[in-house]
Amino acid sequence: MMAQYLALKAEAGDCLLFYRMGDFFELFFDDAKQAAQILDIALTSRGEHMGVPIPMCGVPVHSAEGYLARLIKAGCRVAIAEQVETPEEAKRRGGSKALVARDIVRFVTAGTLTEEALLEPRRANVLAAVCEVRGTCGIAACDISTGRMALEDCEPGRLGAALARLGATEIVAPDGWTACPLDGIPRPASTFTSDGGEARLKAVHGVSTLDGFGQFSRAMLAAAGGLIAYLDHVGRGKLPLLLPPVVLGQAAHLAMDEATRGSLEILVSSQGTRKGSLVEALDRCVTGAGARQLAEDLAAPLTDAGTIEARLDLVQWLYDDALLRGDLRAVLRAAPDVGRALGRIVAGRGSPRDLGQLRDGLAEARRIHDHLQHRQDRPALMDALLPVLAGHGALVDLFSRALVPSPPTERNQGGYIAEGYDHALDELRRISGDARRAIAALEAKYRDQTGIAALKVRHNGVLGYFIEVPAAKADPLMAPDSGFTHRQTMAGAVRFNAVALHAEASRIAEAGGHALAAEEAHFEELVGVAVKASQAIAATAAALARIDVAAALAERAAEGGWARPDVVEEACLDVKGGRHPVVEAALASKGERFVANDCRLLPQDRLWLVGGPNMGGKSTFLRQNALIVLLAQAGSFVPAEAARIGLVDRLFSRVGASDNLARGRSTFMVEMVETAAILAQATERSFVILDEVGRGTSTYDGLALAWAVVEAVHGVNKCRCLFATHYHELARLAESCEALSLHHVRAREWKGDLVLLHEVAEGPADRSYGLAVAKLAGVPAPVVARAKAVLERLEKGRAETGGLAAGLGDLPLFAAAAEARADLVDSLRDRLRGLDVDALSPREALDLLYELKREAGAEG
Ligand code: ADP
């Protein structure tokens, strides 16, 4: 057995091997140790290997899913080795000692799940393959639980952002790709070729050319090749549902890097939970598929005004007609998750219940179609979705006739094919029904015959049908001519058989076996029908999800008093009465009110410096405007009275280092790396929010950096930007930067206490109120008093020298500084070139070194 185990383990590689033994999956050696620890189950041992006991642990097959889920969550991958023959078959093949043949039937990995129990209903589960072909990265991504597949390519530097948008749970990459910027699971590089990818895609979809699907680059095809080869590997040759790939263009989506996504808390909060995230504050979807679509929309907002308007039109239509919205949501709420049921069916893991879900979901789609088809005022997107909702009439009809109303998840008991669908099956069922009735009649007859009122005909899995009488009454039945044959003596009861009973029992068993086989055959047939129609069914599922999203956004807008944004070309961001949906909801739950604020960035006034006290609402203001842009471009109404938004190509959000302390990555380095990325990438169409950048270092350094960053954003990137800072020295930048203006969050000291008004007003902040905030936070009064004295001293000193930022206004811009540095380098180089080193005395050499150092130090 160990030889068989070790061979399978070699095949499983770095996956944990679930080795089927009877009713258990067993794990051995290091696998056992690892799994026992993660699952918190007992580690035992079995036999010996090379003189040492073999560690072992196991999980029951019937509850394996729960254990699998925990292992996958902990980052493991699992290979399932099943028995592929019965013990009888093994004996026939190789004699009484023969080992049952086992084979790995499937790999279970985070990105290739289809089981309802292992998937989160409201989250897509994305597997991505990445590779590089001649300097271009290709990405192939799919969610096999629904079959959606997308291809894209990008520059290597953008790979991280693209993967962050896709939110992949598992990534595979070619083995030996040393420049790979992330740790994917290595796969043979030979599977990542464009020719191979093209061939695999054609084979999957049974087409001779891919032209009908779109234009794919070589990098995309190579990634697709790697992806399909991996799916083939984990499914052991059985491919899951894959729909025709769609090409995602970089330009089609609002670009956001990982840091931005994290800081805006779009799909998960900074705590790593859905609670506290944008999607949680927004999601009113009534179906899992809708929630997944919404999350996808938020992760990848659009940049094309036409598509955004089409989505907004649909939301508007459902916003205006609350009755229609309510009707649609009621129908959708009852609809099962068609996409995921289909995913399981195509992957060969479907159940009768999944077929029932297709039937019910597609029937609901049809009802929505019928409900909407007479409406004259449908927006264009609805017109496009409508035909997709109908069109499964024949399938729904067939499945309705074939299946019982609520089919079971298990096939082995049968009973899911409806009466009247197959007369032969009905006949078999009638036979077993008759036989059961006959057995009931036999029971009465045997009672009469023996005079034992306590006699019973019973059934169990081992004996089948038998007659049972109390032990005290059993003697007469033991007589050879009694007509009964003894089978088993129990404590207090004795069991018998009889010829007529045996005959009826055989009838039941035979008919039952035939009936099961017949149901099995019908099941396969229905699965075949579903698989054949899988693309059309998936399209219907997607249409339902899109309608759910639009209705949910309309619902949210109505609930929160949100407005339809006006999406324009001009590079502006003009928000009236904007609010932060997450903070507003948090305040509302405490009975507090959110103070709405305007934001008016225009081409001639596109950079706002926002000052004011800590806790005054600066971060909230910055983020709410970034979220409003994101929501608008995802096709949603926005939490504001009105909003005019010039399309944004890239969105950046950065938080100064010390604000990030809680997340344990508060190095000043991270802050600067992220700032560098913005300065390198932001365009005139971008929107940037910078929150206390420069805060992670000493005051002078920080102020200097903040100063230079603002100048660069203003003069070089020329993007729209909100910059929150507590350095009021930066106010002086207003003198040199014409498109920059000063704002502050208002606060007032009232009777010695600080009152934060959370109102954004024009003009510079008068002071930082740091001591007042400290007092508010409960710093002891003597400490605050002492701080006040120190502050007075500091401010006096500063007044005498002209202030921290004295003279900064006259400082040449950084371009000039760079020029000066270049001059210095040139002059140093010239002097070194003209030097005859051999002609110098040691003393002269030393002096020269000092001189050069002085010169360099004076400028650098
Ligand atoms: P800052 O960045 O200025 O330190 P924050 O934006 O973090 O301040 O806000 C601090 C707290 O003030 C928030 O957690 C929230 O409870 C409250 N707050 C912020 N903005 C508003 C607002 N517009 N209306 C009401 N309360 C607000």
Automatic annotation (TrEMBL):
<keyword id="KW-0067">ATP-binding</keyword>
<dbReference type="InterPro" id="IPR005748">
    <property type="entry name" value="DNA_mismatch_repair_MutS"/>
</dbReference>
<keyword id="KW-0547">Nucleotide-binding</keyword>
<dbReference type="InterPro" id="IPR027417">
    <property type="entry name" value="P-loop_NTPase"/>
</dbReference>
<dbReference type="GO" id="GO:0030983">
    <property type="term" value="F:mismatched DNA binding"/>
</dbReference>
<dbReference type="InterPro" id="IPR007860">
    <property type="entry name" value="DNA_mmatch_repair_MutS_con_dom"/>
</dbReference>
<dbReference type="InterPro" id="IPR007696">
    <property type="entry name" value="DNA_mismatch_repair_MutS_core"/>
</dbReference>
<dbReference type="InterPro" id="IPR036187">
    <property type="entry name" value="DNA_mismatch_repair_MutS_sf"/>
</dbReference>
<dbReference type="InterPro" id="IPR045076">
    <property type="entry name" value="MutS"/>
</dbReference>
<keyword id="KW-0227">DNA damage</keyword>
<keyword id="KW-0234">DNA repair</keyword>
<dbReference type="GO" id="GO:0140664">
    <property type="term" value="F:ATP-dependent DNA damage sensor activity"/>
</dbReference>
<dbReference type="Pfam" id="PF05188">
    <property type="entry name" value="MutS_II"/>
</dbReference>
<comment type="function">
    <text>This protein is involved in the repair of mismatches in DNA. It is possible that it carries out the mismatch recognition step. This protein has a weak ATPase activity.</text>
</comment>
<feature type="domain" description="DNA mismatch repair proteins mutS family">
    <location>
        <begin position="686"/>
        <end position="702"/>
    </location>
</feature>
<dbReference type="InterPro" id="IPR000432">
    <property type="entry name" value="DNA_mismatch_repair_MutS_C"/>
</dbReference>
<dbReference type="Pfam" id="PF05190">
    <property type="entry name" value="MutS_IV"/>
</dbReference>
<protein>
    <recommendedName>
        <fullName>DNA mismatch repair protein MutS</fullName>
    </recommendedName>
</protein>
<dbReference type="InterPro" id="IPR007861">
    <property type="entry name" value="DNA_mismatch_repair_MutS_clamp"/>
</dbReference>
<dbReference type="Pfam" id="PF00488">
    <property type="entry name" value="MutS_V"/>
</dbReference>
<dbReference type="InterPro" id="IPR036678">
    <property type="entry name" value="MutS_con_dom_sf"/>
</dbReference>
<dbReference type="Pfam" id="PF01624">
    <property type="entry name" value="MutS_I"/>
</dbReference>
<dbReference type="InterPro" id="IPR007695">
    <property type="entry name" value="DNA_mismatch_repair_MutS-lik_N"/>
</dbReference>
<dbReference type="GO" id="GO:0005829">
    <property type="term" value="C:cytosol"/>
</dbReference>
<dbReference type="GO" id="GO:0005524">
    <property type="term" value="F:ATP binding"/>
</dbReference>
<dbReference type="Pfam" id="PF05192">
    <property type="entry name" value="MutS_III"/>
</dbReference>
<dbReference type="GO" id="GO:0006298">
    <property type="term" value="P:mismatch repair"/>
</dbReference>
<comment type="similarity">
    <text>Belongs to the DNA mismatch repair MutS family.</text>
</comment>
<keyword id="KW-0238">DNA-binding</keyword>
<dbReference type="InterPro" id="IPR016151">
    <property type="entry name" value="DNA_mismatch_repair_MutS_N"/>
</dbReference>
<dbReference type="InterPro" id="IPR017261">
    <property type="entry name" value="DNA_mismatch_repair_MutS/MSH"/>
</dbReference>
